[in-house]
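Bench log. Compound arrived from synthesis this morning; before running ITC I wanted a structural hypothesis for how oxa(dethia)-CoA sits in the protein. Inputs:
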Amino acid sequence: MQKSHKPINATITAVGMYVPEKILDNKYFESIVDTSDEWITTRTGIKERRILENGGTSFMAVEAIKDLMKNFPLNPEEIDLIIVATITPDMFFPSTACLIQEKIGAKNAWGFDLSAACSGFLFALQTAASFIESGRYKKILVVGADKMSSITDYTDRNNCILFGDAASVVLVEPIEDLNYGIKDSILYCDGSGKDTLYMKAGGSLFPASQETVANRWHYIYQDGKTVFKAAVKGMADVSYEIMKRNNLTSDDIAYLVPHQANMRIIDATAERMGISRDKVMINIDRYGNTTAATIPLCLTEYYKAGKLKKGDNLILSAFGAGYTWGAIYLTWSLD
Ligand code: UT7
């Protein structure tokens, strides 16, 4: 393939989503741990989350891609690349991207998984954008999918109320009109956050053993308070930074599209940007924290509801384990 010398932007040209049918509401958690609907609602903004009973992350991703294909014409054989942001792959290897490739018949695609926890979708979207801007690739599927229930300890009230399962996908393609598409990104990682949010075992450092199972090391550990403080600062600062760098005022922005971890983190970010609640995409109340899926889920739901219009300026923003965090500025190009 020839390298393009023409400046092009990458843009989202199709969206799709899947959430499992089974709902766990706050009342259910009152029955399994010492908590209350009131505590969960006021501290997090979450009312319910979806749980996948059978199958792995690739199942949800394929369902999301089917949803995309139902609404947008896409021949799987035209897909060049599949990038899957996930921390809950079906297996360590083969990659979830390979499993998806086979299931959807993307015969001409290559692909890989990308691990950046709650910032996964942003990292994957910027990676896709760079491949598109290089001129070598024309159609890239960017999937954000996590089956968080597979690594959630349902005896730990600090964490079990937070997470849910979902998958969402966007198609990224070139656009010649530089008024649209992905215009800027600021992405960071800082490994000093490694001890505050992790799943300790199952990797090469602590392979599965009776000890790792007995110690519950195959579940998420989170020091919520420390992560909360870092997330408020990280997400608010980077969202503000990308606005300033692009000379954007809050009036220029149609929506903040934040990672959905905690309503209080979302509010703090919007406040720093000077953005009112009605310009913030929110679905944390219905899905909780679905890790890599939260941002594309918001985009898909708002687009399907007719609330997202061509020409809308969006700031996508996330913070997660690692730490990883960042923001992307784009102008929506879909009618
Ligand atoms: O998405 C990736 C990044 N992750 C995040 O952004 C999550 C960041 N953290 C948070 O969202 C919040 O820290 C949590 C929602 C996890 C916790 O909220 P918090 O306001 O920071 O509460 P806390 O951890 O300071 O706990 C306050 C109290 C504690 O009791 P004491 O020690 O004050 O008696 C907890 O034991 O609330 C207690 N608590 C609960 N009470 C009822 C913790 N979890 C629960 C619960 N129900 N589920």
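What the model suggests: The mean pLDDT is 97. DSSP finds eleven helices and 13 strands in the chain.
ITC booked for Thursday regardless.
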